[in-house]
Amino acid sequence: MARPTVARIHLEAISHNYRLASRMAGDARAMAVVKADGYGHGIRAVAHALAEDAGKYAVACLEEARAIREAGLTHPVALLQGVHQQADLKDCVHEDFEPVLHSPAQLAWLSASTEVPRFWLKVNTGMNRLGFRPEELAGVWSGLKAAGHDSNLLGFVTHFACADQPGNPMTAQQTQCFEQATAPWPELMRSVGNSAAHFLEGQPLYQWSRPGIMLYGGSPMEGKTGLELGLKPAMTLEAPLIATRTVRAGESVGYGATWTADKDTRMGMVAIGYGDGYPRHAGTDTPAAIGGRRIRLLGRVSMDMLAVDLSSVPDAREGDTVELWGDTVSVDEVATCAGTIGYELLTGVTARVPRIYQ
């Protein structure tokens, strides 16, 4: 029998979250961001779940876009990192992929290509990862027009640095910068809205928004869980309780002996660890659940196991299922305890953990 440590993927939850994003986007359309293997949920299954609702997908790279085509779907796909070599542009033409171009090198490949796809331009409005500075756009446009490629330009994209912090003025500054930079081309489309931007009152999202983490039930907002934002968790990570024992007062548990019992404590071992993608830095007091009742972790997470306190569930027995995150415990809570974000936890669940689609 296979080890019953699994990630249950709730496809209807993903559809619910996408529909919520679409409503929140107002007049904008929402392209479904399914990069990083659908944020760890399985890109093919996620793309199929959204096929009737989503008008466009967004991924990071060509390999992810090809996975959507291999799943039999023909929707347009935006490549958020653009292309990594000139030959990729031909694939984009034939497969209806829309690269987001962000560098002079990519523009040079475009000029040297005999086949040119529809594409976007990335504008650097202050995040300073990728994109052309606003003052460079006029020159970029002139080059595209001279090469006869201006008619292939779909529009402009930027990315917010601090939209997860509602009171941070940087989002308004980036929005103003973007509007001014793209004002000479009002006929072209614009896209700025990551998941967090959907939750900012009055934030313009233009023609296309780009919901990502919110599709999977994770929170894009600082200090809020996905459940508090009306999102449904799309992944339930669960593992079996494989042993129980009473740790006597003064005894410790696990590597480093980082937790010591101050009284006799019934505890259990769960068959999951950092080898499965559960965060090693989640320690004592990180929540989990059995049968909808919350419990807590004890000590240090091992590669294949972790310890839990069973004091609040005296009827728990070997073979019971432990929820590491899902409906009872938000992935965002676990992330906070581990000093990270839900994005990392969802995308970090390893291939050793089977995905079961429901």
TrEMBL record:
Its cofactor is pyridoxal 5'-phosphate. It is an enzyme of class 5 (isomerase). It catalyses: L-alanine = D-alanine. Belongs to the alanine racemase family. It comes from the Bacteria. GO terms for molecular function: alanine racemase activity; pyridoxal phosphate binding. The keyword Transmembrane does not apply. The modification N6-(pyridoxal phosphate)lysine is found at K35. Pathway: Amino-acid biosynthesis; D-alanine biosynthesis; D-alanine from L-alanine: step 1/1. Substrate binds at R129, M303. It comes from Marinobacter persicus. Gene3D superfamilies: Alanine racemase (3.20.20.10), Lyase, Ornithine Decarboxylase, Chain A, domain 1 (2.40.37.10). This is Alanine racemase. The lineage of its organism: Bacteria, Pseudomonadati, Pseudomonadota, Gammaproteobacteria, Pseudomonadales. The active site is at K35 (proton acceptor), Y255 (proton acceptor). SMART domains: Ala_racemase_C. CDD domains: PLPDE_III_AR_proteobact. InterPro entries: Ala_racemase, Ala_racemase/Decarboxylase_C, Ala_racemase_C, Ala_racemase_N, Ala_racemase_pyridoxalP-BS, PLP-binding_barrel. Keywords: Isomerase, Pyridoxal phosphate. Catalyzes the interconversion of L-alanine and D-alanine. May also act on other amino acids.
